[in-house]
User: Fold this.
Amino acid sequence: MAVLVKICGLKTLEALDAALAGGADLVGFVFFPPSPRHLALDAGATLAARVAGRARKVALSVDADDATLAAIIDAVHPDLLQLHGAEPPARVSALKQRFSLPVMKAIAVETAADLGVVPAYASADWLIFDARAPLSATRPGGLGRPFDWRLLKDQARGRPFMLSGGLDAENVGEALRITGARAVDVSSGVERAPGEKDPEKIIAFIAAARRAAVVESSDAGQEQGAEAPRSTVSAVENQ
Assistant:
């Protein structure tokens, strides 16, 4: 099983270089002032230029208006837009049409009922499932809280999705096994303090996700191999 890894909330060249050196598939830049990971446009442009095609760039915003998004796109030239607020399905469709970019829509999850909105977001290219923030929170994500991953057990057979919320190098393997996710997103799980990425943790997270993917592929192959002799025996007995 191949797994895509996204490192989000990058603010420094050191952290970005660690993500790129570790082989991250996507790198995320946050444009939301209440977040400790928020980037000014000029800083975002500097980081984005350094990516130089080595990973896909994701621009995260929260209920941003069209003018704000246009400025972000002009500065960082992202490959995807990540909408992490309360953007309704119509807004997702409208932004895809206006900016001609793939859109990743965050879905806050606490109970199974929260997944009821999934069909309405059919226009989103990706869904990203994140833990629902408490009512007292000042931002919707990056809080380091996991949710019950078992709620996603049926999602692996549906739309492309990314798992987020409370992941780190120690639990990403279990999260992948339980959910069947083919993509993971981490922010606070690779930090030494809110908004301060730890390059060693970034490298460790990417490596852990890759190892988990190899194990899943190996286990799947063993299961298929174990079934083959029974099929052969049945075929012989039926002749």
Q: What stands out?
A: The first helix runs from residue 13 to 22.
